[in-house]
Amino acid sequence: MSTPTSDVLIIGGGVAGLTLALEVADWMSVTLVRPAQDDQGASRWAQGGIAAVLSPDDNLEAHINDTLVAGDGLCDEEAVRFTVTHGPAAIQWLIDQGVPFTPETDSSAIYPYHLTREGGHNARRIIHADDATGRAVVDTLLDKVIQHPNITQRNDLTIVGLLTDALGNCRGAYGSDANQQWHSLSACHTVLATGGASGLYLHTTTPAPSSGEGMMMAAELGARLANLEFQQFHPTCLFDPEGPAFLISEAVRGEGGYLLNEAGHRFMPALDKRAELAPRDVVARAIDAEIQRGTQGHVWLDISHLGEKAIRHHFPTIQAHCGSRGIDITQQAIPVVPAAHYSCGGVATNLQGATDVAHLYAIGETACTGLHGANRMASNSLLECLVFARSCAQALVALGACLPKEEIQYPKQPAYSTPPLAILADIRQQMRVIMSQHVSIVRCASGLIDAQEQLQILVNTLDENAGAIATSEGQRLHQALQLAMLTVLSAQQRHESRGLHFTTDWPQQLPKAVASTRSIKDLAIENLVDDDLAHKNLADKNLVDKNLVDKNLVDKNLVIKA
Ligand code: SIN
After folding, report:
1. How many CA atoms lie within 13 A of 207 on its CB side?
2. Ligand 1 atom at shortest distance from the alpha carbon of 380
3. What is the pLDDT of residues 379-426, one digit of tens each?
4. Within 10 A of 188 (CB to CB), how many other CB atoms are there?
5. How far is Cα 521 from Cα 551, in angstroms, rounded to an integer?
6. Which atom of ligand 1 is nearest to the CA of 118?
7. At what angle do helices 472-493 and 445-464 cross, to 10 degrees?
8. Kind plus residue range of the DSSP H or E element containing 88
């Protein structure tokens, strides 16, 4: 039996991955694989903040209730209670790490840090670091990670698959370096913190979001994916066709910003009594409808009435970015559009991040814990990253460095090939166009069929190009296409409208909310999987034929109840 590279292998270095690394590293050796540039994760771009019950005026039941309402009947209440209850301690942990949260300036306030509001929340409960909370948290945690002697960082690898053994345990991961040389990292426990799947879409709120590759790596080993059809579109991304993706935080509406249509009229109050602070699915659909009715391709978000001083105090990053794009937000309204922002679905896990696969965990946006249901409430995402990273860490430390006895089945290194970058970029772009056209804020049955057919053509084109599939980018693109296909399938099979899934064919909601689950077997049915698995020599090709999921589900008492 070979010695593992580390006790715990963490793939992904956003808030979830960094928190987990720090929470286990005093007891276990950690290898942390993160991109060379921080900009590649979503965490760093999170603006608004972290939701938790911090003010003595607030209470846990209120946060739980708001989350359940936003989730439109599909949240797992146990996961919601667990997350909200552990929220205040997770924030205190961040404060202890030195995160520079914005202090409250009002001397009569009863909580020392400023708390803002966002959509769906009936109380001020969002702690933040100006309007760049993700950056402040990542920078603080990364500093500690760099100094920790038990954490080895690898930022030279692109992970493309997980290692397994004959019993189906996860035994680490493999990937390639910049020269397309493949490397294996074995571990007792492997944790995916690889982000969501917003990169499946053309317009996103972060410049380079992932496209669900980590989710598919887990699925390839037999893990269930849940609720993939619930892709969240943030209502307000800067409309800037020539510029980079840039989020305009929901906190802008929380502090009093108005949404205006082309005629300059507020349209939210007539649609929902919560007006601009209704949950995101409601606001994004309303904006989408206004855009369809209008000619400009965007609506307006106006915060200018707050005044220069308050805007500079609350939103320095947004003010600076908009200024650099020629928009003075103290004087004029901001042009905004909805854009893909967050995947509510992902790898199904229990409350410790355990997946269906032994020794494989998933935390953060990669996971589907049941917290978000059909629509994530604002600022519950970083909270989930923290709470589940900490509970996963506790579980791993309790388990220790236990090692299965089976030999690892290492994948064969594909023959080196120069990546045909133009073909790969073209297929990726086409995939994003298809998803944005047909699997977006409003869906219909015929559009989903078109998406399925067009994605299948892209999969075939990629498979026919052996040179492309042998590269790490080819493999990641294949995973993205597979996840896109599974997302379409999930949308097709939900015959109702709920939360973020709105379809014109079934505009009503069914009386009983049921989570959806997908596995790699669904792709076998669609004829997509065999060649790819064979190519990777994952050996356990039977995986697709085995009924892997159900028994594990029952045994592990996973929180997502199908
Ligand atoms: C925002 O600042 O609007 C984003 C925060 C979130 O997605 O929860």
Report:
1. 8
2. 8
3. 999 999 999 999 999 999 999 998 788 899 998 776 666 767 889 999
4. 24
5. 15
6. 3
7. 160
8. helix 77-97
